[in-house]
């Protein structure tokens, strides 16, 4: 965490004028909306505080914008959001956000960081064009890189990010901060996505028990995020060395939330295929559709991925998925664990409604039990089990016609993916097979649908937080923010 230069120098002045500052700032605190971060204080609970003060960045326009780049593995995307004084989203043209994307992603330019950065220029131009000129210099721009960049070797990710920082500094009229250009870790993605979904549902500002929990199944990792009670947070176990703390404090719309987030590396859908194939080794996998012989490449390693002589079988596949998830291994040193010795957060009301995103939605649509054209669907884990049963009984040859929407490269893994999703929910996260869960791609907000992804959560932080750091740090409490800085 970087302290603002000169922060110390102001300290004694601040002591002297503290009374005055307080008198002036209390009404400001009450009328506006800004998010801020507090220094960490406790061992087990990380304190990054996000709260609001109600002074918009520009009182006469009453609007604030934020530009967020999502640099993913398959492409780069830009989101521009506009908020009013109450932190409600305002239309940009006909839509609630400007969204543009290009392919390939930054990681495709590993050999040439400058070219990587310049690939963002067309997106940057479009983003700037929708922000009113007089607001550009106060509009924060952030770049969050995810899986693709994380996977590059050596100092390549840093060199690419540095080139992007330069690009934003010299070629953009927006307010860039080098700290806003980072590789997001799974924990940050999970926290921002929780903010996004609960914001869009109108839950922020309400008791934690009114919020929903979020499961995000990416390619490399899976995240679980939900709010827990103060009592549960006080009892949270400390994180293992080198790991993120389990619980973070966030202040959103006048409320303090204890957010439990955990990111399970190696248990995203594509990574889990490798873990499951490790279990069967060279003997043929009960998870691979019969008739397929090949290998699966993940993280630069090839895994034997041929069907077993008996063909695919749901029960055998599930046992291997359980083994990959280590659900029956007693490594739990906490009250209760999910899998792999990870504390489960204690459950509770913040988890009773689960919103489940990314690959859960995609595979459910491909398996044909939800409508891909609807933004949300109510299902239960047992729907994944039923779909898995059907898929596992299908040979590769028949699957080509039965599952015509499924990408050819994914087809041999259809039984495995569906079994894994069922196993992850039921054995991993202890979700009741009949409990209703919501598969979500977009959330309805006013009369539009907004993507249920991390960039909006990051924008909410950026738009209302990067503003007027002098006043903020001047009070001696707050720190310069990064992505949910810790
Ligand atoms: C605030 O916004 C108004 C109208 O959009 C603009 O004219 C003015 O210059 C802005 N003020 C600052 C300090 O950016
Ligand atoms: C794990 O335990 C459950 C319940 O005791 C059992 O049904 C399942 O077969 C076990 N899985 C493995 C891989 O041993």
Task: Please outline the helices and strands.
Blueprint: H1 11-31, E1 45-47, E2 64-71, E3 76-83, E4 89-90, E5 98-102, H2 113-118, H3 121-130, H4 133-136, E6 140-145, H5 147-150, H6 156-171, E7 175-183, H7 186-200, E8 213-217, E9 221-228, H8 230-234, E10 247-252, E11 255-265, H9 269-280, E12 295-298, E13 301-304, H10 314-325, E14 354-358, H11 359-367, E15 376-380, H12 381-392, H13 396-402, H14 414-428, E16 436-440, E17 442-445, E18 448-451, H15 454-463, H16 469-474
Parallel strand pairs: 1-10, 2-6, 6-7, 8-14, 14-16
Antiparallel strand pairs: 2-3, 3-4, 3-5, 8-9, 9-11, 10-11, 12-13, 15-16, 17-18
Helix pairs in contact: 7-15, 9-10, 9-14, 10-14, 11-14, 12-14
Residues 319, 322-323, 328 line the site of one 2-acetamido-2-deoxy-beta-D-glucopyranose (NAG).
What does this structure look like?
The protein is 34% helix and 21% strand. It has 486 residues and is an alpha/beta fold. Among the domains are: 57-184 and 454-486, Nucleotidyltransferase, domain 5 (2-Layer Sandwich), CATH 3.30.420.40; 265-442, 2-Layer Sandwich (Nucleotidyltransferase, domain 5), CATH 3.30.420. The strands form four sheets. An eight-stranded mixed sheet has the order 1-10-11-9-8-14-16-15. Strands 2, 3, 4, 5, 6 and 7 form a six-stranded mixed sheet that branches. Strands 12-13 form a two-stranded antiparallel sheet. Helix 7 (186-200) crosses helix 15 (454-463), helix 9 (269-280) packs across helix 10 and helix 10 packs across helix 14 (414-428). The longest helix has 21 residues, at 11-31. It is globular and about 70 Å long. The N and C termini lie close together (7 Å). 49% of the residues are buried. Residues 1-16, 26-59 and 466-486 have low confidence and may be disordered. The protein binds 2-acetamido-2-deoxy-beta-D-glucopyranose (2 copies).
């Amino acid at each position: 965490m970087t302290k603002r230069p000169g922060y110390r120098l102001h300290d004694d002045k601040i002591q002297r004028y503290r009374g005055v500052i307080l008198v002036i700032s209390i009404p400001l605190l009450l009328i506006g909306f800004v998010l801020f971060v507090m220094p960490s204080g406790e061992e087990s609970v990380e304190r990054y505080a996000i709260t609001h003060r109600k002074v918009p960045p520009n009182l006469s326009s009453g609007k604030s914008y934020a530009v967020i780049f999502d640099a993913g593995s398959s492409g780069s995307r830009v989101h521009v959001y506009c908020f009013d004084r109450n932190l409600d989203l305002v239309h940009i043209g006909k839509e609630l956000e400007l969204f543009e994307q290009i392919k390939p992603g930054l990681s495709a330019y590993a050999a040439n960081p400058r070219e990587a950065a310049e690939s963002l220029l067309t997106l940057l131009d479009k983003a700037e064009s929708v922000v009113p000129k007089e607001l550009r210099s106060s509009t924060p721009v952030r770049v969050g890189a995810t899986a693709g960049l994380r996977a590059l070797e050596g100092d390549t990710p840093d060199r690419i990010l540095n080139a992007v920082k330069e690009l934003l500094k010299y070629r953009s009229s927006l307010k860039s901060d080098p700290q806003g250009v980072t590789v997001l870790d799974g924990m940050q993605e999970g926290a921002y996505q929780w903010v996004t979904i609960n914001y869009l549902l109108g839950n922020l500002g309400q008791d934690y028990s009114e919020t929903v929990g979020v499961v995000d199944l990416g390619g490399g990792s899976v995240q679980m995020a939900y709010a827990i009670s103060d009592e549960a947070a006080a009892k949270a176990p400390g994180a293992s060395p080198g790991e993120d703390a389990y619980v973070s404090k966030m202040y959103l719309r006048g409320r303090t939330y204890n957010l439990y987030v955990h990111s399970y590396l190696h248990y995203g859908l594509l990574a889990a295929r490798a873990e499951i194939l490790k279990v069967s080794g060279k003997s043929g996998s009960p998870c691979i559709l019969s008739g397929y012989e090949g290998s699966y490449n993940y993280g630069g390693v090839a895994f034997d991925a041929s069907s077993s002589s008996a063909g695919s079988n749901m029960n055998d596949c599930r046992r291997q998925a359980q083994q990959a998830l280590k659900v029956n291994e007693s490594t739990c040193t906490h009250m209760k664990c999910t899998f792999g010795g990870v504390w489960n957060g204690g459950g509770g009301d913040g988890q009773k409604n689960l919103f489940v995103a990314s690959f859960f939605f995609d595979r459910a649509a491909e398996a044909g039990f939800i409508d891909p054209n609807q933004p949300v669907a109510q299902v239960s884990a047992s729907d994944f089990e039923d779909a898995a049963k059907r898929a596992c009984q299908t040979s590769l040859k028949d699957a080509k016609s039965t599952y015509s929407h499924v990408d050819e490269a994914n087809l041999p893994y259809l039984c495995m993916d569906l079994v894994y999703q069922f196993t992850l929910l039921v054995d991993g996260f202890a979700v009741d097979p009949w409990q209703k869960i919501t598969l979500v791609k977009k959330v309805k907000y006013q009369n539009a649908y907004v993507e249920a992804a991390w960039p909006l959560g990051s924008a909410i932080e950026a738009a209302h937080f990067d503003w007027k750091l002098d006043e903020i740090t001047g009070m001696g409490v707050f720190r310069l923010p990064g992505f949910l800085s810790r």
